[in-house]
Amino acid sequence: MKYPIVKPYLPCLEKYQNYISDVFERNWLTNNGPLVQKLEKRLAEYLGVEHLLLVANGTLALQVAYAALGIKGKVLTTPFSFAATASSLVWHGLQAEFIDVDAGSFNLNADNISTEQIDTASAILAVHVFGNPCEVEKLAALGAEHDMKIIYDAAHAFGSNFNDQSVLNYGDAATLSFHATKLFHSTEGGAIIFKNKADYDNARQLINFGFDKNNHPELVGINAKMSEMHAAMGLTVLENIDHITAQRSELVNRYHQNLETITCELLQLQHWHVAGVRNGAYMPVLFKDESSVLLIADQLANEDIGTRRYFHPSLSQVEAYGMKGDTPIANDIASRILCLPLYTDLTLVDVDYICDKIKFFLDVRS
Ligand SMILES: Cc1ncc(COP(=O)(O)O)c(C=O)c1O
Description:
This protein is 39% helix and 14% strand. It is α/β, with parallel strands linked by helices.
């Protein structure tokens, strides 16, 4: 495909090799090695957060967060997300109940939570969809009033700010994915940012089999550690993060300039939170209906332009996750969504070309 939907960012090989040579010299490959410690520190500084714990991937980040916060029973969550949001709950023996989303932001809409759901749930797991900040203040107030933990699946929210600080500073825990296709990556990897130091300390023990200082399994833990090889990739990518973010944001802005002119009956763009700034993580568009999405995706593929129905299907329609919750808005969005190519070496000329093709297929004059 000439324009794939994503291309993992590959940093300078020589710099990566330097880190790997150091790892070979030390022969310290995992178990909280010096590169993991360095990446943890650098990421916390870069993002402006405290209590950041690196883990092996974004799915384990969610599961460790549930365990560290002692989440039990029912969790209210969004159906418009990636499979891991719901599967991590079910895998952990929790009951996922789906709350419908806002039609503009695509994020969980707290106004759709019923009194009965508030009274019976132990936590809300919301997603900053495509990096777009949730109504974090409203959710914080709800959590405080009803003694519910607020967790953010912030897999897309690297570098996403809200009121001039990282959106990762909101919630009892916020989890990140550093999968190869993400804006910032470590090949595979993830992180959890905890509000409280005690939860962070607990999670640090949980990701290493629950071992105490004497290697005695004091808690029921798991292996969720990041390796030195993965941290080496993270450190190398982090050196270029300002360039990556600037480049992707410019591309997203160009997509918006091109597509904003199309009438909203044919195509809609995600409404970003007014107190946030787009982080350039994804480029989603909503088409008129499902048949338009299927047709456009096919037509673009014939022109060597990759797209992805991300997220489809709506998680509330997946039998394996229990299907609890009436979510017509999320179901509708999931049927009409399409993500467009976005990666660091895509050019503004490429974006114009892709948008011209979309306009042509929609029969819109430029
Ligand atoms: C919203 C969301 N949550 C969780 C994950 C899981 O992250 P990982 O692939 O690092 O396990 C992803 C991955 O793309 C995601 O998009």
